[in-house]
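Hi Y.,

Following your request, here is the sequence exactly as I used it, all 291 residues.
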Amino acid sequence: MQRYDEVPSGFVCREYMDNDIKKIVYQGVEGAYSHIVSQNIFPGESTENVNTFEEAINSVTRGEASYCVVPLENSSAGIVTDIFDLLLKKDVVIVAEYDLHISHCLLGVKGAKLSDIKTVYSHPQALMQCVSYLKEHPEWSQISLLNTAISAKKVKDEEKKEQVAIASELSAKLYDLEILDRDINRNSNNTTRFVVLSKEKIFSKDSNKLSLIFELPHEKGMLYNILGIFALTGLNLLKIESRPIPEKTFEYRFFIDVEANLNSDNVSNVLGILKNKVPFLKILGNYFSNN
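Below is the corresponding structure, written out as tokens. Let me know if you'd prefer a different format.
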């Protein structure tokens, strides 16, 4: 087998915490799940909230923030497609991941009752995660907003008993709202995978998950052949996700997670082979996972 460079160009082996952190950016407002994760990963560090995922990532690429924290996928509702699309376009890498157990609450203003509710606000992912509960109340209108905590803030600001939000218990405390119902996602294993993004291409000696994105030539059996390369070199494929290529009808990009470290010889060889076989390949990050 042909030998390739051990570490891809631009990647440096060091811990992502081993530098002076400017600030951490997350999408939403205080009380958002991204805010909770930011505080858990970076206790005591300065945090800043922005309106959109793209703004959060842009703060990192411009050097205004050291890292941003964004949700990647949920165990019940699936991937956050906006993040996958941004990972393709933006010059950032994943340097860490964090799994947060999600327990959604139904929040209303003081004195509100379930019988008062007409409209439910939340992020689309939260609405999907609570679909079984919401089906029990077909008379409630559902309106998507940018963030769960933004939804809670809206309910507080407008002070209407007929409006409620699906958000965290922390949001209830921050915005002085009443918890009308708890654990409404109905799935005790409901978990969201968050990732930390950096513009510095960092990985550590303990990194054990490698995330890649690639496109394939539109040829018969090509996906089978590419995936076979990982098996033949002894790499464990953890996940594969496809996303359509808008400019190519019914053609797809593939996001994969592999159990691997960039310092490994077999990883170097796999990456070298892929570069020669696929029209597009991007390393999304190499980081440590507890899973």
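The chain has a mean pLDDT of 92.

Thanks again,
Q.
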